[in-house]
Amino acid sequence: MSDSLSGPLRVQRCFEKPAVALAVAVEQSEVIPVLATQIGVRGLYLRPSPAMPRELSGNMLQSVTCMHLGRDGWEGDLRCEAGTLPFAGESFSLIYLLHVLEAVPDPAALVRECARCLQPEGLLVLLGFNRWSPFRLRLPRGAGRLLDAASLERLAVDAGLVIEECEGVGCLWRGRPPVPSEARPQGPVLRSLTGRWRSSCACIARKREAAPTLVGPARTPLRVRASPS
User: Per the domain annotation, does 133 fall within a domain?
Assistant: First the structure.
């Protein structure tokens, strides 16, 4: 087993823990309203383990390609090396990364690949465990690198994407099944107070289409003739 891929396999075992699986279910339920706003043809869903459900709940796409991290790279609907994505540029309306940045050898390279594969106005959803949350104490050893909102924002911005939203999601300590009244605090003030401590961070970024540069006709220099004396 190579050093670069030993991390993904350790992270897979983390998601087999009931408390972790329930916490992920809570955070995914909170992201569903975002997915429902992105209508398109194709989506890409990358997950850390085959133990995670392969259905991407709430999406409004015609088809979703689903892959997970394995011993030799990405597995699932397609198999490929971990470093690159085998898709043409501008292939997807939505790309959803569920806790894979904790495990891949180069998170920045993966986010750049996602930006390349996004269509103009396409949406990238990043979910990662929050390094500031008390829930991190419940994560088993080998859970991978822990991120925060600022780290996710920086990865997306460096890849040329525009941040639409970045905040804490999930639970504070105990992983619980998603309950509508508890899944997210009501009101922006309470949400801002608790968001920093929630189990994960969700970053929503969009690939904006470059505005066309308007080029007018070349201006002919004005030539003034000397008047006859």
Answer: yes
